[in-house]
Design goal:
The chain is mainly alpha-helical. The protein has one helix and no strands.
Amino acid sequence: MENLMARRAASMLAGALQNQYQNSAIATANNINFKAQLE
């Protein structure tokens, strides 16, 4: 049972890190887009 809990926690953490990375990549792309429009 503990093994399942640990795996679930690891899976949730991995998912959260992936979401954070995707949000960061999207924000960077938006920022580049915005700067390009200003020029």
